[in-house]
Amino acid sequence: GNSVTQMEGPVTLSEEAFLTINCTYTATGYPSLFWYVQYPGEGLQLLLKATKADDKGSNKGFEATYRKETTSFHLEKGSVQVSDSAVYFCALSGWAAGNKLTFGGGTRVLVKP
Amino acid sequence: DAGITQSPRHKVTETGTPVTLRCHQTENHRYMYWYRQDPGHGLRLIHYSYGVKDTDKGEVSDGYSVSRSKTEDFLLTLESATSSQTSVYFCAISDGSSGNTIYFGEGSWLTVV
Q1: What is the pLDDT of residues A89-111, one digit of tens each?
Q2: How far is Cα of residue A109 from the mean position of the Cα atoms in its chain?
Q3: Three-state DSSP class for B65?
Q4: Are B100 and A99 in contact (CB < 8 Å)?
Q5: pLDDT tens-digit profile of A36-90?
Q6: Which of A43, A49, A103 sits opposite B107 (nearest CB)?
Q7: Do B102 and A105 touch (CB under 8 A)?
Q8: Nearest of B65, B60, B83 to residue B75 by alpha carbon
Q9: Do the strands A32-38 and B19-25 form a parallel or antiparallel pair, or are they unpaired?
Q10: DSSP code string of A23-59
Q11: CB spacing of B42 vs A89 below 8 angstroms
């Protein structure tokens, strides 16, 4: 079956530091890959996505590239802000219709001033 | 923001009582999902629906039932609540197309005492 593994947190950074959150996946066929962000007390918001190999998703300074050869979709941001403090989830949806998402365990990021 | 409303947003109930959570969408999307979020597990799929009266189980469906009598409403019922069902429950919607985004509601916090 499908599975997603992402690095455990919490990750604590200083403002303007570089952020990387690793995500690897196991899936059959050609999944679509997503990063969702959850701010305290809120639901999940789509941060970015990629639907085929070598696609790069980007949004709000965050980027992730769909690497089929390494089955990875690592999230990066060059200069984090305090407002980026949140929980980040890597997820995939399979080839079959219905788009059922399989999530990683989430990575909590805390950015300190 | 996707038009998804969950109710109630917060509920405390006693062990053994039935509980129903409601999800209402205004997007006319075909697919609706219920996930639960627990520390260390990310989000896990409970049940999903691919049309009116068409539902199927997810990976953690034991102890839960669902119903969808209208396109816009998807109900999640805990027939006899247990403490292990204390969690945050998220409804999500999608049009089901491959690679399309799944949108999440704001969550329902359920505590079973």
Answers
A1: 999 987 665 668 899 999 999 99
A2: 12
A3: strand
A4: yes
A5: 999 988 889 999 999 999 999 999 999 999 999 999 999 999 999 999 999 999 9
A6: A43
A7: no
A8: B65
A9: unpaired
A10: EEEE-SS--EEEEEEE-TTS-EEEEEEE-STT-EEEE
A11: yes
